[in-house]
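queue> holo job accepted (adenosine-5'-diphosphate)
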Amino acid sequence: MRIAVYPGSFDPISNGHLDIVKRAAKIFDKLYILVSFNPNKKYCFTNEERVEMMKKATKNIPNVIVEGSSSLVLNFAREKKASVIIRGLRNFIDYQNEITLFQFNRSIDNNIDTFILFPSADNLFLSSSAIKELVMFGSEISNYVPLELVDFITEKIKRRM
Ligand code: ADP
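queue> job finished
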């Protein structure tokens, strides 16, 4: 069975994340989405909210399992018997981060590989921070996040302003 893990902050989830999830779920038999609980990071959405958003957005994809954890991605992957980590790569900044993470992970466990998926054209410029900025400047985000989450995400970001 081919098992993969897609880790991330998803603060909040965007259509770019969801596109990667849908494409990876077609390639792997089982896809775990690891919503990272990193105590060193400041999130806009709570751990529970980030897990809940991802669960709602992926509820119709049967081979996707969403979990939140503060584990190291590699430990989570080993625990789930996953041999692949999925990441998205939009630009050179992502490239620098992702290749460093990849080399770091390989130096610890070379049985776990990283698969990079490039975004679909519509999502190339999309990021969680862009979504927050759009809301802060009063713009609509329905083209950028799953429709069922537009109101929740908008209200939460407005409350945090
Ligand atoms: P992290 O804090 O781990 O970078 P993110 O939620 O920002 O968490 O991103 C998770 C993964 O999704 C990363 O590999 C990132 O490059 C990728 N990603 C983010 N936005 C997009 C997008 N619009 N299209 C494709 N991949 C994306």
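queue> The chain has one domain: 3-160.
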